[in-house]
Design brief:
Distance between the termini of chain A: 13 Å
Helix content of chain A: 25-40%
Strand order of the largest sheet of chain A: 15-12-14-13-17-18-16-19
Helix content of chain B: 40-55%
GO molecular function (chain B): 4 iron, 4 sulfur cluster binding; glycolate dehydrogenase activity; metal ion binding
Shape of chain B: globular
Radius of gyration of chain A: 23 Å
Strand content of chain A: 15-25%
Oligomer: heterodimer
Strand content of chain B: 5-15%
Catalytic activity (chain B): glycolate + A = glyoxylate + AH2; (R)-lactate + A = pyruvate + AH2
Organism (chain B): Sphingobium boeckii
InterPro entries (chain B): 4Fe4S_Fe-S-bd, 4Fe4S_Fe_S_CS, Cys_rich_dom, Glc_ox_4Fe-4S, Helical_ferredxn
CATH class of the largest domain in chain A: Alpha Beta
Number of helices of chain B: 25
Largest interface: A-B, 30 and 29 residues
Largest sheet of chain A: 8 strands, antiparallel
Distance between the termini of chain B: 56 Å
Number of strands of chain A: 19
EC number (chain B): 1.1.99.14
CATH class of the largest domain in chain B: Alpha Beta
């Protein structure tokens, strides 16, 4: 694990850097006051807060370039953040203490272009999902956004760069991005893809153009600051119809995954499937039953079953949606899906009309129409105390393996006294299993348990042959070390080439700690 | 967030309430994205979680509040946008009210500010004084350059406002012209009674047409909302008691089924009467009964249903007043009703953001309010509406200052579509029914 000394900054250098930064971006856009700066170091993770040296709010790619040049000159590490809070994944706190946060959300929040004909938008880092949704709504929704189920203030650029995903056919945010402008760690400005051609007219519509495909380098890395990005948008379908199935038993995940693979590989269902477990579903509207269970332990199965009954669901809720030109066509597609999912007799079908009356289900319907929602927030309060993180192991869409993974997760969580709260976001071949870990971070003993629990997930899933993707900043070096020396060494070699002084987010995803 | 109140402090029910709300804060920061002052100023101390901390520290320390704390709490709009994003459900409204009342009782503001706040607190809730002050404003307008900026701003604000006369002013009871047999009470408000009588008249007409007998007890004046948001809790409670007396007897003796409010800022306060008067044993239960009967006009009309005589066919930008969308969580009903009468209802980008009116805010914080007003008007113009509709007189006056698009209370459109008068704001336009 890295220590603060690895990124130690000479205080004189820092002071000179701040003076120069004020001259560059304007004094009012550089902040070192504790009341503001400390907030950027707040972190819900067990390790606690990370001290920050200052916050700078640039307004343009040129200013970002200028800041990177200054950072190289004074050897001051920068930590760029876009918009949103990144709750559960490390907040806005740097990986290591002492870094200067470059806050791109406040001023670089322009929607630079929406091309309705070619169905794409070009955005700066500070554009939030809500901003883009509002803009599309004011235009009468010619195009539809793919959004996460996270807070509406998160944004497409930051989410894409952290390998985030949504739920509609445009769920793969990186695949649906096209053309980046990046300020590299060495201060150069790179325009990826066709954008490298002076006067390019195809920057945001042609992904692969000429030469090596470089965009992927800027995902989950620290090689550059992306200052603009093209994202493809889906024409809004005339009719979207959601469907829901409730399955009674924990082990029904096996049948669900087999059905999911069959339907997704054959294109029967255009959206991803959300396979949501009981607590993940009703945890949005209720809290851990302190009167029926011991908060220091995993909720007993009997109590969980009682709560399933109270909320009218089983162990798993499956949701998805179809898009169609008419309601009749949508209904016909739903009939096919319904016949497949209810064939074994285990699933109960819940039509959208019924589901929409219940916020627990409406979260999912909103996802499939690209509407940002904050209805998942209450999950953070399932257990008191404010500690929250996400654990996202990869699970193949294979019934028996999914059952094994459920057993593995439940076993780990039970050992550490937490609850299995999981939503599989299911594609044709793999799912990202969103586990929510909530705990009391004001209790040192619980903090220690949460820390050990997260590491156990990384270790035990790695031992089973699966990585935990998208770890919070605190666990990125730990998780990356599981990928082996060669992979990390290659990442570090690229770091040395593009950011020779290691001034961009050293330690992010474990990269740049080799010096 | 931990609090550090002493045992003696925590014996106070008010501090106990404050502590329990403060302790819910986890510093997630979701509230910052929707807080208008944080979005504009970017200062954590001008965000809800920053203010929660400030209130906590101020109450824990006791004594005279720090001027910086007062500045940041004064800048809060009480729009409650934060409460719709807070996963821990902090009752920020109660907390900021506690903070304001503490400041009012323990902090001596500069003389000019004290005078201005007293003027506002005395004049606005009193229709007779308000009428007089509007006359005075028209006389003072040419000299506003030599007045303080806030006073000059207030005088400028009154330029477009004209005291109006109601068709129903003299009546305490208006009969139903329909057969349904409903009985309701209507809050006429204080400010609205002077500069927005067309809203009350439209409300009375549509209610009467749809079978409601309407009570307007004369003893009900200001609901208490205006003084409450200035930290003048005792004045607010005195006004609330007067309203509770009148409405409770209307409910118990006259069989009134609902108290209808068409000024949403007032609605928020009245719906919270149970809490406001919970420390008063003579009023606590009566106040809760009144609160339980309080409904925004849109909630009531959805309940009883309305019958349009001709579809309006207008493109309407609906602006959600903060008091409706965040405090009362009433968002679908106005849209549902406007759609029912044939309007093409469009949502305004950044619909969660306050327009800057916020009760007396645009008088006390004109600079921030002006920026918010312009931002709201720009967002509205992006939707290219023929008409702006909203549910609060304060929002109407604020937005009107920055937009050329005619603005009405949605009930005026509903009244027009169901056989009533064309809204005054639309009379000079070519817009017509059907």
């Amino acid at each position: 694990m890295a220590t603060s000394s690895q990124t130690a900054v000479q205080q004189d250098d820092l002071a000179e850097f701040m003076v120069a930064a004020r001259a560059l971006v304007g004094a009012e856009w550089v902040d070192t006051s504790a009341s503001k700066v400390d907030r950027f170091g707040e972190n819900l993770m067990p390790e606690g807060n990370v001290p920050v040296s200052g916050v700078i709010y640039p307004n343009s790619t040129e200013q970002v370039q200028g800041l990177v040049a200054l950072a190289n000159r004074f050897k001051v590490p920068l930590y760029p953040v876009s918009t949103g809070q990144n709750i559960g994944l490390g907040s806005r706190a740097p990986v290591l203490p002492g870094q200067v946060v470059v806050e791109l959300g406040r001023r670089m929040n322009r929607i630079l272009e929406i091309n309705e004909e070619m169905a794409y938008a070009v955005v700066e880092p500070g554009v939030s999902y809500q901003d883009l949704y509002d803009e599309l709504e004011s235009r009468g929704h010619p195009l539809m956004l793919d959004t996460t189920s996270g807070p509406p203030q998160g944004g497409p650029l930051g989410n894409t760069l952290d390998k985030g995903a949504g739920y509609t056919p445009y769920f793969d945010h990186f695949y649906m991005s096209c053309g980046m402008e990046v300020v590299l760690g060495n201060g150069d400005v790179l325009r990826t893809g066709d954008g490298a051609l002076e006067g390019s007219k195809s920057w945001n519509i042609s992904k692969y153009g000429l030469g090596p495909y470089l965009d992927g380098l800027f995902l989950q890395s620290n090689y550059g600051i992306v200052t603009r990005m093209g994202i493809w948008l889906m024409p809004k379908p005339p009719v979207t119809q959601s469907f829901f199935f409730s399955f009674p038993d924990d082990d029904d995940i096996g049948e669900i995954m087999e059905l999911a693979r069959f339907t997704k590989l054959r294109g029967v269902i255009p959206t991803l499937l959300k396979v949501t477990n009981d607590i993940y579903a009703f945890g949005t509207e209720t809290r851990f039953p302190l009167d029926r269970a011991d908060i220091r332990k995993t909720i007993p199965d009997a109590v969980r079953k009682e709560m399933q009954t109270e909320h009218g669901i089983g162990s798993w809720v499956v949701s998805g949606a179809v898009y169609a030109p008419t309601q009749e066509a949508a209904d016909a597609q739903i009939d096919v899906i319904r016949a497949l999912f209810t064939k074994s007799g285990k699933a109960t079908y819940i039509p959208q009309e019924i589901a929409d009356e219940n916020p627990m289900f409406r979260i999912h319907s909103d996802s499939f129409i690209g509407k940002p929602t904050r209805d998942e927030f209450p999950l953070y309060e399932w257990r008191p105390g404010g500690g929250a993180t996400w654990i996202l192991p990869v699970t193949p869409i294979h019934g028996e393996t999914a059952k094994d993974h459920q057993r593995l997760s439940r076993n780990i969580l039970e050992r550490f006294g937490f609850d299995y709260i999981c939503e599989h976001v299911v594609g044709a071949r793999m799912s990202r299993a969103l586990h929510v870990l909530v705990w009391n971070r004001e209790d040192p003993e619980e903090n220690a348990r949460a820390d050990a629990c997260y590491k156990a997930f990384i270790d035990e899933y790695a031992a089973a042959g699966y990585p935990v993707s998208r770890p919070p900043t605190a666990y990125q070096p730990y998780a990356m070390n599981r990928l082996g020396h060669s992979f990390l060494q290659t990442c570090n070699n690229i770091k040395d080439a593009l950011d020779p002084n290691g001034i961009l987010s050293p330690g992010r995803y474990g990269i740049g700690l080799h010096r | 967030m931990k609090t550090y109140f002493t045992e003696q402090q925590i014996a106070s029910p008010i501090l106990q309430e404050a502590a329990s709300e403060i302790e819910k804060c986890r510093h997630y920061g979701f509230c910052t994205a929707t807080c208008p002052t944080y979005v504009l100023l970017g200062d954590e101390l001008d965000s809800p979680r920053g203010r929660v901390d400030l209130i906590g520290k101020m109450l824990e320390a006791g004594g005279v509040p720090d001027p910086s704390t007062v500045k940041h709490l004064d800048r809060c709009l009480s729009c409650m946008a934060c409460t719709t994003t807070c996963p821990t459900s902090i009752d920020y409204g109660k907390l900021i009210d506690i903070g304001r009342e503490y400041i009012e009782e323990n902090y001596r503001r500069p003389l000019a500010e004290r005078a201005l706040r007293t003027l506002i607190a005395k004049v606005l809730p009193n229709p007779a004084l308000f009428r007089l002050s509007m006359l005075a404003a028209s006389v003072a307008r040419p000299f506003s350059g030599v007045l303080g900026s806030k006073l000059a701003g207030m005088i400028a604000m009154t330029k477009a406002l004209k005291p109006q006369k109601s068709d129903f002013a003299h009546l305490e009871r208006v009969d139903s012209s329909g057969a349904a047999g409903y009985r309701v009470a209507l809050l006429e408000g204080c400010v609205q009674k002077v500069i927005g009588v067309q809203i009350n008249d439209a409300t009375i007409r549509i209610l009467s047409r749809h079978g409601c007998e309407i009570y307007k007890p004369r003893s009900v004046g200001c609901c208490g909302s205006l003084p409450l948001h200035m930290g003048r809790g005792d004045e607010a409670r005195a006004l609330a008691r007067r309203a509770v007396d009148a409405w409770h007897s209307a409910i118990v003796d006259e069989g009134v089924q609902a108290i209808i409010i068409n000024a949403s800022g007032c609605g928020t306060t009245i719906k919270d009467y149970g809490h406001l008067l919970k420390g008063d044993p003579d009023y606590a239960s009566k106040a809760q009964i009144v609160a339980d009967h309080a409904l925004d006009i849109s909630e009531w009309l959805v309940r009883i249903g309305i019958e349009p005589v001709a579809p309006l066919g207008l493109r309407v930008a609906y602006h959600d007043p903060c008091s409706l969308q965040h405090a009362q969580r009433v968002t679908s009903q106005p849209r549902q009703l406007l759609t029912r009468v044939g309007c093409d209802v469009v949502n305004v980008p950044e619909r969660h953001m306050c327009c800057g009116s916020a009760g007396t805010y645009n008088m006390l914080q004109p600079e921030i309010a002006g920026r918010l007003g312009k931002r709201k008007a720009e967002n509205i113009s992006r939707t290219k509406p023929e008409v702006i509709a909203t549910g609060n007189i304060g929002c109407m006056n604020q937005i009107q200052q920055y937009s050329d698009v005619p603005i009405v209370h949605f009930v005026e459109l509903l009244d027009w579509a169901t056989g009533g008068k064309k809204p005054v704001a639309l009379c000079a336009t070519a817009l017509n029914r059907g």
